[in-house]
Amino acid sequence: MKHWIFAALLLATAADAKTLIVNANGYTIGESGSLSRFSGLFIGDDGKLLATLREGAAEPKLAAGDYRLDVKGKTIFPGLIDAHGHVMDVGFSLRLLDLAPATSLADAQDKARRYAAANPAAKWVKGMGWNQVAWGLNRFPTAAELDAAVADRPAWLERVDGHAGWANSAAIKAAGITAKTKDPAGGRIIRDAAGNPSGLFIDSAMALIGKVVPPPSAGDSEEALAAALKHFAALGLTGIHDMGTRPDAWALYRSFGDVGRLTVRITAYAHGMEAMEAISPLRPTPWLYNDRLRLQGIKIYGDGALGSRGAWLLAPYSDEPATKGLQFLDDTKMKNLVSRANFLGYQVAHHAIGDAANRQALDGFAELRATYGDTFRNRIEHAQIIAPADIPRFAELQIIASIQPTHATSDKAMAGDRIGEARLEGAYAWATLRQAKVRTALGSDTPVEPANPFYGLHAAVTRQDRNNQPPGGWRADQAMSLQLALKGFTLDAAYAGGAETKVGTLSEGKWADFIVLDRDPFGIPPADLPKVQVQETWLAGQRVYVRPAAN
């Protein structure tokens, strides 16, 4: 308790005083998208900006008790906003078995074995982050292979994209799944030659195991949210769009807001209609806690993910011609969901990765446009593989493309195999989208990808992974400029969440959300963007993070 109080005192500045930041190398994106420079910020006692100061401008006069900070030439950016993440999943991923670093099946087995040994009291071994493509494994792992690491209790490990799960034999037995168990709608049980479950469950089939996995306790959830908020602040994120908010998570966000513990602005999108009805069934909530929390929209799913061959394609998979992926919603149900959401005033965030799912979403939005117009800023999440003829329709229908740059650099070794070279023309096509005047909001899909926004900026600008591969970038003609990428993580992300009048730029009257960096991203080679470190994060004119001094 004493430690928490000390940390709070360290980060806080006087709530009833003005703050002046001077000697800054400041950048912000103007309302028109132009890059603007400043040397100082003058912040009111309400946490909103009174002025941005240009080089050579006279300093405002301060009264007794006001605060002046000389940042000694350090670079300041607006607070960065992740337009697509999963807040609670991030918190749990920081506490559960993390297989994202695993480089092979054997490495994943070893990590699972070590985690189980270190957590003997856990009734289930739970984790996430595995990726068989990164292991060079041209198939899914099996229950028998997980049994070799954990056999004494059930184990359930979600794939990096959250669209597949890997179970050991004990978990399959606990769920009562046999060869007679049918594939659920929108899901698939991977089976062996005899028809028995092999240990892999795709999309909605994951619920067959999930229903018997012990839920986290209230204390576990509270610790997970605290860990996630701390993680985001350390990375320079002052906002995140939470894609798939469930009622229990919303209640936890409210409890944190009630006691002043929300150190990131959460724009929430309910996990389907049932979650919306449990949270706010009549209309979106107002902004709460000084614009730190709002239920803004509803998340719906049109298909699965490319890595697990659940993305719904117009033509069969090149590396598995027997399937086109998974269609989650028929056309009528999809349009009914969108119509009901918009009727209630909710924005729709429609998950669509494959070109068939993207076309279905666009067709549905087009049909409903005559009724609801363009007022809801409906958005397509991921928009990864789009038929080239459909790209201009995003702008025509004023649909936001919510994209995650690091997906391209993670998928580059797999995408061509899955869909063939011809369909790559409309895949991860950021420059083509921008040329078509499509508004693009950028995010990470964390914890599917790391939450660090400088990884996203790097991927957007270079089209390379963090080992700077491939040379010259993968399909480099689709790269963004750093200025446009920064706009995607600030003003465009704010617009996508209906908050551009509150955040997204460092402008008079908006919240003073900003970050102090250890180097100037505009003054370094693009290859060094992942090395940028956040020194301080400020939310509403208050420090919420200070990087610890190096030992």
Short description:
Helix content is 31%, strand content 22%. By secondary structure, the protein is of the alpha/beta class.
What keywords describe this structure?
551 residues, alpha/beta, Urease, subunit C, domain 1, Diaminopimelate Epimerase, Chain A, domain 1, eight-stranded parallel sheet, six-stranded mixed sheet, 17 helices, 31% helix
Q: What would you say this structure looks like, in words?
A:
The longest helix is centred in the C-terminal third of the chain and has 19 residues, at 405-423. The strands form four sheets. Strands 8-15-16-17-18-19-20-21 form an eight-stranded parallel sheet. Helix content is 31%, strand content 22%. Helix 10 crosses helix 11 (355-372) and helix 13 (405-423) runs parallel beside helix 15. The chain has 17 helices and 24 strands. Among the domains are: 2-79 and 513-546, Urease, subunit C, domain 1; 89-210, Diaminopimelate Epimerase, Chain A, domain 1 (Roll), CATH 3.10.310. The protein is an alpha/beta fold and 551 residues long.
Oligomerization state of this entry? single chain
**Overall CATH class of the domain at 89-210:** Alpha Beta
Question: Approximately how much helix is present in the residues?
Answer: 25-40%
Number of helices: 17
Question: What's the main sheet like?
Answer: 8 strands, parallel
Strand order of the largest sheet: 8-15-16-17-18-19-20-21
Gap from first CA to last CA = 25 Å
| pLDDT < 50 runs, ≥5 residues | 1-12
CATH architectural group of the domain at 89-210:
Roll
Give the rounded overall mean pLDDT: 94
The percent range for strand residues is 15-25%
Spatial extent as radius of gyration: 23 Å
Shape: globular
